[in-house]
Amino acid sequence: MAIADRTRRTHAGPVDLALLPTAVKDVVTIRGSIDTSPNYVAGGELAQDWMVRTLDKGTASRDRFEVASVLENLGAQLGFSSSAARVRFSARCLRADVRTVVELLFEQLKQPALEESELTKSRDRLLASIQRGITDAGYRADVALSQAVFAPSHPNYMHDPAQEKSLVESLAIADVKQAHNATVTGSPRMVIVGDLDVEACSEMVGEIAADWTVSNDGALDPPSKVATAGQSEVDIADRDNLEVRWGHAMPITRLDENFLPAYMASFILGGNFSARLMNEVREKRGLTYGIGSGLRGVDSRYDGMWRMHVTLSQDNLDHGIKATEEVVRGFRAGGVTAEELAEKQETIAGSYQVRMATTAGLAGALLQQMEDGRPLSWVDSYVDRIRACSLERVNAAIDTHFRPDELSRVVSGTIPG
User: Fold this and answer.
1) Which of 322, 344, 333 has the alpha carbon at shortest distance from 276?
2) Are 292 and 271 in contact (CB under 8 A)?
3) Is residue 89 part of a domain?
4) 223 with 154: CB under 8 angstroms?
5) Domain holding 199: CATH number?
């Protein structure tokens, strides 16, 4: 029976809930998310990150040691993460402990302690992470590329470390509480997969989330930055291995009919170890150990970019850049071959089928369709849709969306000379 046919999707109070019983004995996996819409120019996503880092540090009725003790005694896992425009949560526990874990999950979401001492520690950890980024050549290259491609109000725009540090230091606890309020007034979605009673789980989630009030839809209207091709350098001392990035805006979302053909094209170019860039630049010419291409930051609510990356030594910098750009021009001019397409279709389909054999993979795939606003049946049709990406469609996507002459290029590290 198809996955969608075995999944119950319902509204349990304010929660958009999907429940999938499986044959896995005793184990239950939970995935969920809430859409947000921070003020990116003012560092709203940093306040959100700061807030999320503190959700597991105690609640209004339990301190962080009690929270940790509950999870440890159950052998359960529960965590939160922040992306540009979502707060996500995940859990794994035994069937008998689902109610306890979901109660704790909503308690942490709705009533975090947000104590000043813990917030200070979380901010210090956030600032330490930013500080580490200053000497990370790959991160600095990604920052510079994002600034070349996106406007500051776009979810995919990245502040450079000095800006981030200044923004975090300017934030107050009131900003964290505002970020929390924006999260707990959004619409939660949740997937529960594993050894479960569908009716009991639906009723349980509805009871626990009954007092959740939705007043924020997390709507976004991010601008795309129309950028002309350019080159820039980020000089970092004592980083002899250089990171090079190329990219331009890809004005499609996950809901665009050209998303899968464009994704397939970028995967053929540089998605794995048998992709064209790896074959040409690493295997044949020996210029790098790491190179790739992909669509980055593409969401159902906003566009992303076509991005390439390569790590090069000082001696191979010019040769590696030239070789990479030659391959990309050939990709744009000639498209992909039927053999390349068939091979990568089987690779992607096989990887997806392996992932669907786990409760975590099933939960993640179902959540992705819910975030995209699609029917759950898309989980079952994914492999068919990958195989339906014909050579004509993939090459048409290359012709429409991949423009080497518009790529911005960034070199980061200890710049030669």
Assistant:
1) 344
2) yes
3) yes
4) yes
5) 3.30.830.10
Q: Are 89 and 109 in contact (CB under 8 A)?
A: yes
DSSP string, 16-55: EEEEEE-S-SSEEEEEEEEE----TTTTHHHHHHHHHTTT
Asked whether residue 214 is domain-assigned, the answer is no
The CB density around residue 26, as the number of other CB atoms within 10 Å, is 11
Q: Calculate the CA 348 to chain-centre distance.
A: 18
Q: Who's near 128: CB < 8 A, 6+ residues apart?
A: none
Q: Over the stretch 214-229, which tens digit does the pLDDT of each residue have? A: 998 888 887 766 666 7
> In terms of C-beta density within 10 A (0-12 exposed, 13-18 middle, 19 or more buried), how is residue 313 classed?
middle
Note whether 202 and 323 are same-domain residues: no
Q: Within this chain, do residues 329 and 377 fall inside the same structural domain, yes or no? A: yes
- Which of 87, 88, 366, 34 lies closest to 214, judged by CA? 34
CA distance 266 to 394: 10
Burial zone of 205 (CB within 10 Å; 0-12 exposed, 13-18 middle, 19+ buried):
buried
Range 60-64 average pLDDT: 95
In a domain, 223, yes or no: no
Examine the domain organization and report whether 153 and 258 are in the same domain.
Answer: no
54 shares its domain with 112: yes
Separation CA 202–CA 393 (nearest Å): 42
Same domain, 145 and 237: no
Mind listing the pLDDT tens digit for each residue in 109-154? Answer: 999 999 999 999 999 999 999 999 999 999 999 999 999 999 999 9
Dig out the tokens for 353 from the structure: 């089928």
H or E stretch covering 128 = helix 116-133
Give the count of domains, the chain: 2
* Domain carrying residue 114: 3-208
| Domain C-terminal end among 146, 173, 208 | 208
**Total-model pTM:** 0.94
Sheet of 231-235, strand order: 231-235, 408-413, 242-250, 304-312, 291-296
Using the Cα atoms of residue 337, residue 338, residue 342 and residue 343 in order, give the sign of their dihedral: negative
Residue identified by tokens 């091979």 is 343
In the 8-state DSSP scheme, what is residue 222?
A: P
What confidence tens digit (pLDDT) does each residue in 274-298 have?
Answer: 999 999 999 999 999 999 999 999 9
Backbone angles phi, psi at 77, to 5 degrees: -120, 140
> For residue 154, what is the DSSP state?
S
Burial of 258 (0-12, 13-18, 19+ CB in 10 A): middle
